[in-house]
Design a protein that fits this description.
Shape: globular
Strand content: 5-15%
Structural class: mainly alpha
Number of strands: 8
Largest sheet: 2 strands, antiparallel
């Protein structure tokens, strides 16, 4: 408890804004002067300079919203829409300016429903929102250590929950319109369509300007120095020698994948070294490992397949921190780290295995690709990486990006453990897909015969039992015949059988990935001692990228 209290005090001191530099580079110290500087900065930032006539730009945009879409957007807001917005948001976030968290609205909805719905409906009918609802707390979060200017601070707005309900209703309506037709891809490219045609005109009419302090140029090694200097002078933008991160990831990557991710190890080291272990007991260490250390690589893991060597280094680093004593004395590792990564019911502590967590998070992206084939970002991926086949059959290649090849490794988990519900049977391969009732694996992943499940279904939408019994062994034929077929001619549907709703989650994916790996190791050991080291034909392997 003493550790967390001390950490809170340290964080409060570290994040307190005691001084800032103004536009002239001079320090501003007094609280009232700092507040005035912040106000003037954001007033200038969000105020258009010059004419704000956007009509020339707007005239270039063709109409995409039909009358029917517009009527859907303008229709009266229902109480059911408002309720879905209230319960569709995380209620555990920090309380807002009025002190009421989302949990308050959700728990007492039956009591406050009438008043909340009246306020929301009033906004959509009159276009007016009361000042007390519009009140927002703005928190400035440092982007870097020892922030000096307002460019080094990121504003975070903490809005009242009713304000967020109104926003949620609006977003839900827009999403429903986007799903109906050509508006969805159009919203994605609208900025490019306007600013590509009228870049200069848009800058003048909108009053917005490029922030040169946040802009930079990077050059390849083959670009001559003089050419770089000329480009800098023309654009009036400096060169970034070592570009910072963008959206949480480095802008440039090194050839070695492990070296490209060194920043994660550095961040973990920095956290561990700052913690005063003389104030920590094992329970405190457990909380810090789960809530802080194992959360550091989460975002990068959802996009990139980490080299196994890096996962092992991270695990070793965390294990060393867990076992060492006070004053950073080297401790005795009383049990294997893999044991500590099992859940508490099995005698472990529930720490995450980085390798399996990485696989589970990548599988989430693969799941989204499968379930949202018409999404713009999926269509872009298809055009560039698998234009002539489905995502399920897409192949990795040496020249493919690290991100693309990583997503395919997440897909491999789905291919082995997700299950197909049979509709027409056109998408499902008999040998390579997991679809048979009572059989939790493909029949033969090595068989390249392109036989589809539709070839086993008769014209009456029943199994062709004669063909099946003649083609498969009796035990397999029986399972196939017991596999249900949809009575309506709908598409084959991929489900995640480890959840009742059939949707994939990282949590269940992680546990399945661990069990899958355990079974692979058991089979390898069995084959080693039973067959003199030869491996069975259908053993599965989890590949990690080479460093």
């Amino acid at each position: 408890m003493a550790f967390f209290h001390a950490s809170t005090l340290q964080r409060r001191d570290r994040n307190r804004i005691d001084r800032l530099r103004n536009n002239e580079g001079n320090w501003v110290h007094k609280q009232e002067d700092i507040l005035r500087l912040i106000e003037e900065y954001y007033m200038s930032l969000f105020t258009s300079k010059g004419s704000t006539n956007l009509q020339d730009c707007i005239n270039k945009i063709p109409k995409r919203v039909t009358e029917s879409m517009n009527n859907d957007l303008l229709k009266e807001v229902t109480e059911e829409e408002i309720k879905q917005a209230v319960f569709g948001m995380d209620g555990t976030r920090a309380p807002r300016p009025n002190g009421l968290s989302g949990q308050f609205y959700q728990k007492h909805w039956s009591t406050i429903q009438k008043d909340v719905c009246a306020v929301v409906k009033d906004f959509f009918e009159k276009g007016h929102i009361p000042n007390e609802i519009n009140e927002t707390q703005v928190v400035l979060i440092p982007k870097i250590k020892q922030a000096e200017t307002l460019n080094h601070l990121r504003p975070i707005s903490c809005c009242n929950y009713i304000y967020k309900i109104i926003s949620k209703v609006m977003v839900a309506r827009l999403r429903s319109i986007m799903d109906k037709g050509p508006l969805s891809p159009y919203l994605f490219i609208i900025a490019a369509e306007v600013f590509t045609i009228l870049m200069d005109k848009a800058l003048k009419t909108s009053g917005q300007i490029i922030n040169l302090e946040k802009s930079g140029i990077t050059f390849g090694n083959q670009i001559p120095i003089q050419t770089r200097v000329n480009i800098e002078e023309i654009l009036n933008i400096p060169t970034w020698d070592e570009p910072e991160k963008y959206l949480g990831l480095p802008v440039q990557w090194k050839r070695s994948k492990s070296k490209s991710l060194d920043w994660i190890m550095e961040k973990v080291d920095g956290k561990i070294e700052r913690w005063k272990e003389n104030l920590l007991n094992q329970a405190g260490k457990e909380v810090l490992i789960k809530a802080v250390i194992q959360a550091i690589p989460t975002y990068a893991m959802s996009i990139l397949k980490f080299p196994k060597s890096l996962c092992n280094k991270l695990s070793a680093k965390v294990a060393k921190f867990w076992w060492r004593g006070q004053w950073k004395e080297k401790g005795i590792q009383w049990t294997a780290w893999t044991k500590l990564c099992t859940n508490k019911k099995e005698g472990g502590l529930g720490f995450k295995d980085f390798h399996h967590q990485n696989t589970a998070q990548l599988a989430k992206h693969a799941w989204r690709i499968i379930k949202n084939p018409e999404a713009v970002w999926v269509r872009l991926l298809k055009a560039s990486h698998f234009p002539n086949c489905e995502f399920w059959e897409a192949q990795s290649h040496q020249r493919g990006s690290w991100i693309w090849n990583s997503i395919l490794q997440g897909r491999d988990l789905l291919k082995s453990k997700a299950k197909w519900n049979i509709g027409q049977g056109k998408r499902v391969k008999v040998w390579k897909d997991n679809w048979i009732y009572g059989l939790n694996q493909p029949l033969d992943k090595e068989n390249n015969e392109d036989l589809r499940v539709k070839d086993l279904i008769s014209s009456s939408k029943e199994w062709d039992q004669a063909k099946i019994k003649n083609f498969f062994p009796a035990i397999i034929a029986e399972k196939i015949i017991r596999t249900p077929i949809s009575r309506i001619a709908r598409q084959d549907n991929l489900i995640w059988p480890y959840r009742q709703d059939g949707n994939y989650t990282v949590k269940t994916g992680y546990h399945i990935a661990k069990k899958r790996r355990g079974k692979i190791l058991e089979r390898q050991a069995l084959n080693k001692y039973t067959f003199g080291g030869s491996l069975a034909r259908n053993l599965e392997y989890e590949n990690s990228p080479k460093d």
